[in-house]
## 1
Amino acid sequence: MLATSLSLLRSPLRRRTRLLLAFLLAVAIAVPVLGTTATRAAAAAPGPCDIYASGGTPCAAAYSTTRAMFASYNGPLYQIQRDSDHGARNIGLASAGGPVDAAPQDSFCAGTTCTITELYDQTPNANNLPISPGSSCPGCSGSLSGPGPNGSDIGADAMALPVTIGGRHAYGVLFNNIGTGYRNNAAKNVPTGSQPEGIYMLTSSNLVSSSCCFDFGSAETDDSDDGNATMNAIYYGSACWTGGCTGPGPWVGGDLENGMYFSAAGPNPPTIPSETGSFVSAWEKNNGTTNFTLKYGNGQSGGLTQSYSGALPNGYNPMKVQPSIELGTGGDNSPMGTGEFFEGAVTRGFPSDATENAVQANITAAGYADNTTTFPPPTTSVISLKAHANGKYVDAPNSTTSLIADATSVGTNETFTMVANNNGTVNLKAHSDNQWVTAENKGDSPLIANRGGPGPWETFYLLHNPDGSVSLRAYNNQHLVTAESAGASPLIANRTAVGPWEEFDLTPA
Ligand code: AHR
């Protein structure tokens, strides 16, 4: 309460003075002074959250796998767990307020795979981000399931995104596998309702998508879509839900729920067809009633470009933000977005442009480089599927009849376009009606080709069996597709082990 009252009294002049002081402090620390070298050498330069605090808009949550967000921070950055013995360990800093010391991760994960299981909040609020509970959180009635236990999400591969920062090696968080997500549904001291809020994250255009939703920021505490204005998160990607966008993207937007907005009307400015770079800083701030502002910058050099500042979309005033912080998914745990994350923070209050410029300068001075991991684009092929259950081809006759293995030859109804994504999943589009095959009712009902685009229900893991056949595992319920009753009944995703009914010959058609 006292802090709130004090922040209301802060004038722009005093904010500018504090920013200047923070800058002078950084310079003073960087210049060795005779006789005090040891003390000075140990002190670190201000981090992004020192700058936000100087500007009167302190960080309410701050995460990074690459560096400290405060000069004084000397705790862990993130937790990893290895597959071999399920042992866990924290990864911390090379020095207080400095960059990560990633060497312990390399030795701990040698010869096995490691998963990032938690990102630690560096603010005193301890708003840590564990793997999202997905549809298993209390009250998550409307949420989308992740591929983890009980519908929870999964963690990122800890070794999958090597980069350097200030010449030291480090790892970012890679959101490539469908259902990778982190969330804190009981965040403390974060903006709620229509309180002003600022957010930034350092991401990359090396891996983006037009699927929903690679987000960082405030979301619903029940992992469910609670209606317009119940989210205030940064979206980064190339989805244009409102239509009318110009260029291929990606763009920085505001995911305000039921829409990722690049302006009040939706579309990006025609003058900015894409916002790209191997490191991209993404910025959103929202005063809760009359303004939201979007910016982007190159994370290695230069300043910020404002892509939008103005009214909130119709139906989003006032904001109704809830105390949850999420990273990597949509507010309802929509799991299909892909992206990269290196650092980011949520602030209390509407940061000034001067503060954001100073944080951008701090990011570029950190020396991010060597983000060279590449991702093959999806491949498309035309295929048919022959069931081992009865030796017949899978038939998708129209958008009202379920898929069934009853055909003795391949024609249009037995032909599918298969999109193979770079994360081991596929989507199938039936040639009979040009609709995508869905595991209807989250897999409770048979497969049917009746969807206009691929989402979670239309996503299947493609498993390769030792005998050369394939099996399909539905993303939503993680169950294997079977040619039910030895092929006499429609295909349905309801099995937990591969037998002959779950095996199909996949052949180019
Ligand atoms: O606003 C876009 C998305 O719509 C949200 O992230 C999600 O909750 C809903 O599906």
Note: DSSP finds six helices and 34 strands in the chain.
## 2
Amino acid sequence: MRQTIRPAGPLSGVVVLPGDKSISHRYAMLAALAEGDSRISNYSTGADCHSTLGCIRALGIGVEEEGATVTIHGRGMHGWNQPAGDLDAGNSGSTIRMIAGLLAAQPFVSRIFGDESLSKRPMDRIMKPLASMGAKIGARENRFPPLTIHGGRLHPIDYTLPVPSAQVKTSVLFAGMFAEGETIVREPIRSRDHSEIALREFGAELRVKQRVITIEGPAKLTGRELVVPSDLSSAAFFLVAALLVPGSHLVIQNVGLNPTRSALLDFLLSIGAPVSTPRIECVNGELIGDIEVRYAPVRGGVIERELTAALIDELPVLAVLGAASEEGLAIRDAQELRIKETDRIATVAKNFERMGIHVEVTPAGMNIPGKQKFRAAAFDSFGDHRIAMAFAIAALHGDGESTIDNAEAASVSFPEFWSILARF
Ligand code: S3P
């Protein structure tokens, strides 16, 4: 699908976004292991979170969907059936890595695969810790999907994450629910803590002390009513749009503001963006609130170390903002960007080139000079949802009509993106 984007006038009004992708995956997987029903409202409409629902259904768990409300009929920690066929994780790294921790503990063999992009993403980061808990996992070239998981009895481990990854942390904690005793995960840098919050909400015994998380197994989970906040990583596109187009003023409602995710707002504030959160409340252990943003020129700056990890999903659209900023933007320590749905350093640079934006690419980041002119261009998503949306936002600031090929990729996390954008 090709989308055409014309330069926008000021963006103003209220924006309502779909549910958070990270939280939706976790709620669905834990609900599928809980005793009794869970009702999850504002479940992500994205294809990735539907890949998770597809896997759960294939494991014999009842799932009903009514709009964005999902009811999951959990059958307890030992209620999953061996799937009749292979499990399909689609494009979703979160699905395959997190559910692998649960499949590793099942008394059956399962096989899980993904699309072309997922088939190139490394799984050894979860295979190693799960193997040291006693799971046997086979993979293409010992590293890539499909994974064949010979589940069984697991024992607890004390594991220091070699990469800052919430997906890996979650995979080990999820497996730890089935191991008798204390499974400990140590993080080099604090990553998003939705799993820790969700595990507690469902009734697991979990302790967090700085960057050390301990889960007590065996866990027992109880079904519940949950509300998913709207996705801050989706909000990022509209925050940047408002900061690119003079005169804009947006309010984005009921967004997840978990402190391990909201570095985006702190970063925007630090470079001079008028961003505020006039209302915040706590729902199911997660902070939710409205974000208000007005246009202002932003300074630019440096994103490195912990900040890079905290902004990892927002970097493509922040790179776009960097090219319009006063002083430019340097992104460092972002080697993880190279193994996302695409090599996002390469795909951002390719689209920048098409619009005449200068960028110096480094092995783990990029240096983007500021105050650059955005020329209209023919972009490609390269099959990556965040690249499709980041360059649709760039196109709003272009000097004419731009196009985005393979625009349907946005549906992976945000199917409503194009219709919301069309309002402006
Ligand atoms: C996610 C963690 C991050 C992020 C991904 C979602 C999660 O991946 O990029 O979009 O929900 O835990 P890593 O764990 O690979 O850093």
Note: The chain has two domains: 3-18+229-422, 21-227.
